TrEMBL record, chains A, B:
Belongs to the SIMIBI class G3E GTPase family. ArgK/MeaB subfamily. It comes from Comamonas faecalis. This is Methylmalonyl Co-A mutase-associated GTPase MeaB. SUPFAM superfamilies: P-loop containing nucleoside triphosphate hydrolases.
Length: 353, 353
């Protein structure tokens, strides 16, 4: 299949043809072969005018919080409303463990049987940046194929929440009702990203869930997650993170969740924040990939490779200032400077001083 | 003064000679002239073995919270205990406004008159990274000159808190007692960095201060700022951020603050976290400067300069995928690829498809 016929099948194919074309396109985008990469870039550019209409929804939460059950309940609810739903994932651990989330579709058995659902496991291997790039590109394929909601799931590993936040319109954090408990184990900095906090399994202990809802709401407010001081007075009304209770297993509260998502989308469209967020995300993504490429070339440079291990050890041990080491390494790559003797030879105080 | 005599004066000069040498050394380190930079790097490397014994303390808080009053009270308290105190600052706005913090020493009138105190305003101009680098290097000069405590002050502008957190052993956030109030205006993400939260001006409304202390303590716990799930079970006891009340103006609670700092230092030394933090900071600093240098060279490349404005606009407007643009720009710098026509010419769907 050529990229042109692939594009045609994604845009206009009958459901089974379209699904096969999507899978092929995503596989092409995930390929690291140089000739594939050229085709993949041509495909991406051709797809792009058909993207951007979907709602991009990030879902995060620690293992055991019930992410799959929630996504399945939400997906079925949306399909019931006539929407098409794609589910992607970012799981940087999948290269090591073979995938801890979405590795098998049986976890979302009912949803995966729906014609209006498309579920793709996390790309595996490589850096988080690489995995995130493949997921971003897969998202564009889903959008061009007419999916109305693209859900990107992640589990709290490394910086994966930041990556998902950086590619979605709305970032939701799932919590358990025992919020006051140390077992909660939410990662520092994740709540900062939340546009919506969902207390799942609220039916197990309704009192605890209500307490957690009140506590999290006031904590978000107290720690500056509401009322951003950098807000421009000319902005329209801004969104303040909300905290909801649901029970995905009982299918309770999923409609309320979706109503909050729709409120958010309406507000962010009206105040211009949705397009601003996407524009910033696209530029940040470009610079993230440029940074990665520059650093990769830097590390591969023969002079840098020769100097880096010793200089890195010297910096870690405090034998040379970090800024001095950085200047030496940059000069080595540029080839403009003579090879520099490493720091330990000059770091010792000179008795003559 | 040669770098060698400068080093000697910093290490062994009588107080007035030492102070003049410190000022000269910091000015040399701040210079952008290439020949000065070579001398500055030689000086830094020679200073380094005499650094690292000071406690590095970051202080942040919004304007009006009383940072200067607090730092002055703390500085005088420490000098009363026979310690030498240096106060540096990072104020990225200073290049625009001429300096909003520490621009004039009269703000810390009593402290600045002490022989055991050294106060230096924020370096001005350039990027935050550049300003932070100069402050880091000035910190090393202060340490070599025998200062026991180096305080780095910042005001909540841009990413300056992250920069100060990245160069200090302990990061403290000052708050007002009206914590529940939206006027608090603390920036999203700053509390995440705090090792110690200080409620200043507690004497104005003791009840509000006590309420704020309880609320902030439980919020920090609830939002995952305590009990890091990534902690290694083999770690010793870990520090949990504390919340204290003081009144700097009344000199109340400054001794309690210092006791908490000493507790922190003892614990972080015992569990190995202090040296680990410094090692990570030094390596992160090195890579931050390398990244900056690589990106500067990238932006200055003629082929990149020719393509960047249009590609950046195409990415922002969604006419080309960010990853495709990044690959085109990297190829342009590497010189390996032909000049690429910009995206708009190929983005429109081909009717033949």
């Amino acid at each position: 299949m050529t990229p042109h016929s692939l594009l045609d099948a994604i845009l206009r194919g009958a459901p089974p043809v379209r699904r096969r074309a999507m899978a092929k396109a995503i596989t092409l985008l995930e390929s690291t072969r140089a000739d594939h990469r050229v085709q993949a870039d041509a495909l991406l550019t051709a797809l792009l005018p058909y993207t951007g209409r979907a709602l991009r929804l990030g879902i995060s939460g620690v293992p055991g919080v019930g992410k799959s059950t929630f996504i399945e309940a939400l997906g079925l609810h949306l399909i019931g409303q006539g929407l098409k739903v794609a589910v992607l994932a970012i799981d940087p651990s999948s290269s090591v463990t073979g995938g801890s989330i979405l590795g098998d579709k049986t976890r979302m058995e009912q949803l995966s049987m729906q014609e209006a659902a498309y579920i793709r496991p996390s790309p595996s291997g490589g850096t988080l940046g690489g995995v995130a790039e493949k997921t971003r590109e897969a998202m564009l394929v889903c959008e061009a194929a007419g999916y109305d909601v693209v859900i990107v799931e992640t589990v709290g590993v490394g910086q994966s929440e930041t990556a998902v936040h950086g590619m979605t319109d709305m970032f939701c954090v799932l919590q358990l009702p025992n919020a006051g408990d140390d077992l909660q184990a939410i990662k520092k900095g994740v709540m900062e990203l939340a546009d919506l906090v969902v207390i799942n399994k609220a039916d197990i202990d309704p009192n605890a869930a209500t307490r957690a809802q009140a506590q999290i709401t006031s904590s978000l407010r107290l720690l500056g997650f509401h009322g951003n001081p950098e807000r421009d007075p000319h902005d329209g009304e801004l969104w303040n993170p909300k905290v909801l209770q649901i029970s995905a297993l009982q299918h309770q509260g999923v409609d309320g969740f979706w109503a909050a998502v729709c409120d958010y989308r309406r507000l962010q469209t009206a105040n211009g924040r949705l397009s601003l967020r996407r524009e910033r995300q696209a530029l940040a993504w470009m610079w993230e990939r440029i940074d990665f490429g520059l650093k990769q070339a830097f590390r591969a440079h023969p002079q840098v490779r020769a100097l880096l291990p010793q200089l890195q050890a010297d910096v870690a041990q405090g034998r040379i200032a970090a800024s001095t080491a950085a200047r030496q390494l940059l000069a080595a790559q540029a080839g403009g400077a003579p090879a520099v003797a490493h720091a330990t030879e000059t770091a010792a105080p000179q008795p003559a001083l």
